[in-house]
Specification:
single chain
């Protein structure tokens, strides 16, 4: 029994490490590449939204490998094609529709806002995740978590009050503010998706494995892609791609490279998200995503020579302060639980000694 528990623990830790790595690469890379598309002449919002989920077939490679490994262990006839239950499948479709709405709104935000501003706005998803987690999964909070939520919210408000100070050249104030608001709403959708996914895992009681995480992500991304594809068909984006590629400032070949890398990086991000949700929780996922904010913001300033004014600096400090506060609170709580567990193990033998004759 102990051996099985140890193996299970190793698998969870491996899932966590792989997921966090994919999340880091996808989070930083996808935002930069998405902004690159708009900077050099891209204008199609539905296309940008589509690239956020269309990379889902990449999941079929590890899922196929997982299936053959499973078939080798249990036999040809006993190996199931999928580990996901029907309720989980239905829940994944619903979450996918919500993800499609969030992707479209975030695409508008990426089109209108600099990367450094977008990343700081995305840091507020920790506050949204905490809010939804409190009501949906009954997440308990301490003073450190509340402090983190307040700091991140203040940072977002500060950016909102001075939103026009870093408006890109040629961007109207109206469209800039629209992008700011829609990106903030899409960030709230992300927090809700995190929490709903954790809720599904708990209610349906799925076995925690990276395979199930990939299956869930596959269905969610497929559902969102169907919605984005319909939007592209209505907006005639597919017909416009060749013309937009020819007019792309970096060249036609690089236009398609940008789209492909965008799809791959977004897929890494999505897979990292759901793997982290499986191996940790919605709140921890939100914390780590917020931790990546300063990295992406600095990369945006370096890559695209964006302004990094005082408001962004203060908002960034508040985001880091909020992250550090919550992380310290969780670390302190974990140490307290560990100390209580050790004390319990010490007390139980003592009680048995007094009872035995």
């Amino acid at each position: 029994m102990e051996t099985q528990q140890e193996i299970h623990k190793v698998k969870i830790n491996a899932t966590r490490v792989i997921s966090l790595l994919l999340l880091a690469i996808g989070n930083c890379g996808a935002l930069l590449v998405s902004r690159l598309y708009f900077i050099y002449g891209g204008k199609r919002i539905w296309l940008s939204s589509w690239t956020q989920t269309v990379g889902f077939p990449l999941n079929l490679i590890p899922l196929t490998i997982s299936y053959f490994i499973r078939r080798k262990k249990v036999g040809l006839t006993d190996a199931t094609i999928t580990l996901m239950t029907f309720p989980a499948f239905v829940a994944a479709i619903f979450i996918g529709l919500l993800a499609a709405a969030g992707s479209y709104m975030s695409a508008i935000g990426y089109a209108r806002l600099p990367v450094s501003t977008s990343t700081i706005i995305l840091a507020t998803q920790l506050a949204f995740t905490a809010f939804f987690a409190f009501f949906i999964v009954k997440q308990k909070f301490n003073s450190y978590t509340i402090n983190a939520v307040v700091l991140l919210t203040i940072g977002a408000v500060l950016l909102g009050l001075h939103a026009s100070s870093d408006r890109p050249e040629g961007e109207t104030k109206k469209l800039y503010i629209l992008g700011f608001i829609l990106l903030l709403i899409s960030t709230a959708c992300v927090g809700l998706i995190y929490t709903l996914t954790e809720f599904v895992y708990k209610k349906i009681k799925l076995d925690i494995s990276f395979t199930v995480a990939m299956e869930m992500q596959l269905v969610i991304a497929l559902s969102a892609t169907v919605v984005s594809t319909v939007g592209m068909l209505i907006n005639k984006d597919f017909q416009a791609i060749p013309q937009e590629a020819r007019e792309f400032q970096l060249g036609e070949a690089k236009y398609y490279v940008v789209l492909v890398f965008s799809a791959i990086l977004w897929q890494c991000f999505q897979l990292g998200i759901f793997g982290t949700l499986f191996s940790t929780s919605a709140l921890v996922t939100g914390i780590f995503t917020s931790f990546l904010v300063p990295v992406t913001a600095v990369l945006g300033v370096i890559a695209y020579h964006e302004k990094f004014n005082a408001e962004k600096g203060v908002a960034l400090v508040l985001a880091l302060w909020g992250f550090a506060s919550h992380f310290y609170g969780e670390f302190k709580l974990r140490n307290q639980k560990r100390a209580q567990a050790i004390q319990t193990e010490v007390d139980i033998p003592a009680e048995k000694t007094t009872i035995d004759p």
